[in-house]
Amino acid sequence: MSPAADRAPGATLDVRSITKRYGDVPAVDAVSLDIEAGEFVTLLGASGSGKTTLLRIIAGFADADEGSLLVDGQELRSVPVHRRDIGMVFQNYALFPHLNVEQNVGYPLRMRKVSASERRRRVAEALEAVRLPSFAKRRITELSGGQQQRVALARAIVSRPRLLLMDEPLGALDRNLRDALQLEISRLSRELGLTVVNVTHDQEEALTMSDRIALLDKGRLVQFDSPDDLYHRPVDDTAASFVGESNIFRGAVRGDGSLDVADGVVYSPPSLVDGSAVGSGAVAVMVRPSLVEITLPGRAPEAHSRVDGRVSGIVYAGDSRKIIVETAGGAELIARENAARPLDVGVGQPVTLHWDPRSSIVTRLADETATTAASAPTRKSVSA
Ligand code: ADP
Ligand code: MG
């Protein structure tokens, strides 16, 4: 049989209203995810948002208090860990240091009493897949971090699991290795048709690797969408501030379509001014820093949203540079421009940031109670 023919295809995973409490506080709060066969899904969220807890529940290392987990339509919660048919990769590799590469990768097959010859064949196949074909006899201690993680990945896929779970698999690696392995894991999981649930707190990693991202905040699912939708259509200010850089203004939309903002005028997008999407409640207006322009005070076009401030920092990052502007009210805003452009502002200089209202997105406020009078942009929206 060809490797393709005897491979089990990825399973569907239906996470239904899973809740897990430690004490009174839910670490995972009624999370539902309908994951398709062969889909690469990333659980994204800040530290403590419940990612590992949810992954451990899927793996079987912890049980939920409520909810159900259906794999290919069958309840998983009553199935013991070793019978769940799941591959796992952890941040710290978790390899056996006294075994060589081949023995590590073959370990799950040994546990299943697969014959030695079949084991050799499948270990060789798995090492081929992670591009370490000549490493079978190497000791684990002779491998770099990146190579160890490839071995861990080979061990996770060698028994052809229906689901592959990964908890911050690239967290211990340096930037370049991380980028390379990101691409490789995506390639491999797609080649093998694996259904993957990956965990990270790194939004770039999530945006690069995933078919869909489940954004978690304090145990709750904020949004479950494609990277593109999450970036361009965040459901609320939490999603907007977590994914991509953003400037966020909070307030109620007035009759003329503007928000009440201390250091300037912020218009909501014309299409939403009298739309029911806004209503009369408090909203967030969000604009991405790459869509913000910078000019001298008084020079912004009349129809543009504009906020006055003073340049407080200029930071270069690869092809772009970030101009940080602090308003009189103490809020920090960001404009991001192409680094090839001549720099025409300096630190300390008074400036106006402005943008076409059509560049803005209006979203819900995750926590409306805390924002009745708030009109300044949120500080946490400003990320490096
Ligand atoms: P993440 O992986 O997103 O960083 P975790 O799932 O590890 O988050 O944790 C979510 C919340 O649950 C945190 O507040 C954490 O302190 C709590 N928590 C996780 N595991 C336990 C445990 N075994 N006992 C008590 N609290 C826990
Ligand atoms: Mg974690």
UniProtKB/TrEMBL annotation:
Source organism, top-level taxon: Bacteria
Entry annotated with the keyword Ribosomal protein: no
Entry-linked SUPFAM superfamilies: MOP-like (SSF50331), P-loop containing nucleoside triphosphate hydrolases (SSF52540)
A GO term for molecular function: transmembrane transporter activity
InterPro entries referenced in this protein's UniProt entry, alphabetically: AAA+_ATPase, ABC_SmlMolc_Importer, ABC_transporter-like_ATP-bd, ABC_transporter-like_CS, Mo/tungstate-bd_C_term_dom, P-loop_NTPase, Transp-assoc_OB_typ2
Gene3D superfamilies (UniProt xref): P-loop containing nucleotide triphosphate hydrolases (3.40.50.300)
Pfam families: ABC_tran (PF00005), TOBE_2 (PF08402)
Name of protein: ABC transporter ATP-binding protein
Organism from which the protein derives: Labedella endophytica
